[in-house]
């Protein structure tokens, strides 16, 4: 048995413990190292994946020229076997272009020596791929002292776009130069404005038009082609184009070379915010257009007077003109033509009116006629419309329209047959006329009817000899009141037959008959004489003349009676007023309260009756009396009239307002009559306005007239009352069935206004009050 001492046991235990602890620590360190290795492997895998999928691939060039690159980069450069040296980047149909490889080698050498970064575009042999190389000195972490890292980026699309943009820029530059030369050589003024509408560029034509030194001088001085900068000026047109983003066109006058010209300005907005413009001289165009319009108007006026129907269609095949015979032939109303119907619709309308030939296939027939618009030559057809035969000519117009001519030839086919019938109809018509009719030709009586023979009482044998006009005139004389009047009939026949003019006169027969004689020229060179019996007319005229004289005499008697009665009524009325004032003043002793009221009522009635008498006198005396001619202050006359009516308005608690605009001024006339006009209007307004109402007197005027307006807020007037408001003694019924009068104020006002050659107007509606306007001329 081995005996181990205590100290040895302790040392052995300690050694064993150390071994256990060391084993545990070694196990832990191994596990941790394995975990770190796994993490590093995963990170390397991720980085490798990112690098392989990156748009940029790296190439490491070491100091001795050895290369390190990925398989993907080798594919970009077209290598099946990856190159090992920098010199192997080109050759045998693979790698870079020789010139690109040489350039890359030079840049790499510079980067190795001086650490200068660079970028270079290269291409691979036999490939359209463009690569961008970015090179810089390799970082220390790469562990490649003196090496260079080259990053290859696939820039094929970017390079293509750059090349395209370069070509486009070259093309645009050439186009800009050509456009600039064209603008400079243009015969019309052209310009360019900035966003603030100031001129930035003008061409030579603009400089010449504004008489500037050169374009810099014109731009510096801001010389405008069109005078003025108002709402209708060139800047306004350019501002609208700039703000709306739409081209603007305006015709404006300008003075160029000392001559007035009409220019059409075109302002075109640009994406830069500026505005480009040019001006076209349209002076000759406007004159030519005006001439064309006048020619077209004259042509249409001429077409409207011919007997043939004419219809003109525009380039859009809409009806733009038709004369009256066309509308009459095809029963087309003017209202329907206002919408400018198309060619097919016009044919449909004509068919509805049975004015087209009967055809089996109407749509096909209509389509064939539509080809008239594009026909190289005029087309002529004949349409049979029952008993009517129509000649149709279709003429295409140079501007793309169509002119149609419709000539009714039916009359030509039936002319001879109708001629005989017309002779018979004419004879029968002349015989059946109630008027005396005779036709003269070649200085003789050719035709006559039974009435003509009866009026003159001639024998058939005398008329059948077709007497000459002088012989016939001698036979007229004994049958007339004045034998010399027979010569007048001969003169009428001569003027109608030779001078082709219509004339008329009247003759009186010895037996009391009266006739109006008229001679008119006929198309065949003859003269037609008609005699209309006006005996009853002359009798009625004499009766009416006698009755009118009697009415005028009665009116004079009435006027004289009214004037005399007015004067006669003044004397007792003055006495009544005097005694009533004495009673009211207490000269006969104090009056009771009722007596005082009665005396006040008497005085009011006396004043009213006095006013009515004055109005009657004015109405009867002012008709023939002349007006005074002196300056009349309208404002002063209106103030006096308002002061005279103020007590009446106050008694009814009516607000009387005078509104003066300060422009009424003065007129030349009769001051008293002018004041009476305003006073009558105010009195009428106050009398027609209920208590607590309002009456307005307004004064204004202009350089031509002075105006007075009187309005109230009374009950107004019915249309019947308005229609007769200015009639003398007009009566109006009220709701109770009684009659009342508006008085003579309005008739007098109208009479005085018209005497001043003025105008008076009344406007009123029930419940809306009344407004009377008076305009008095300055002279």
UniProtKB/TrEMBL annotation:
Coiled coil start-end: 155-182
Record flagged with keyword Endoplasmic reticulum: no
Domain Histidine kinase residues, every copy: 564-779
Catalytic EC class: transferase
EC annotation from Swiss-Prot or TrEMBL: 2.7.13.3
Presence of the UniProt keyword Kinase in the record: yes
Keyword terms of this UniProt record: Coiled coil, Kinase, Phosphoprotein, Transferase, Two-component regulatory system
Pfam families, per the entry: HATPase_c, HisKA, PAS_7
UniProt catalytic activity: ATP + protein L-histidine = ADP + protein N-phospho-L-histidine
Gene Ontology molecular function: phosphorelay sensor kinase activity
InterPro entries attached to this UniProt entry: HATPase_C_sf, HATPase_dom, His_kinase_dom, HisK_dim/P_dom, HisK_dim/P_sf, Sensor_HK_Regulatory, Sig_transdc_His_kin-like_C
PANTHER family: HISTIDINE KINASE 1, TWO-COMPONENT HISTIDINE KINASE
Protein name, per record: histidine kinase
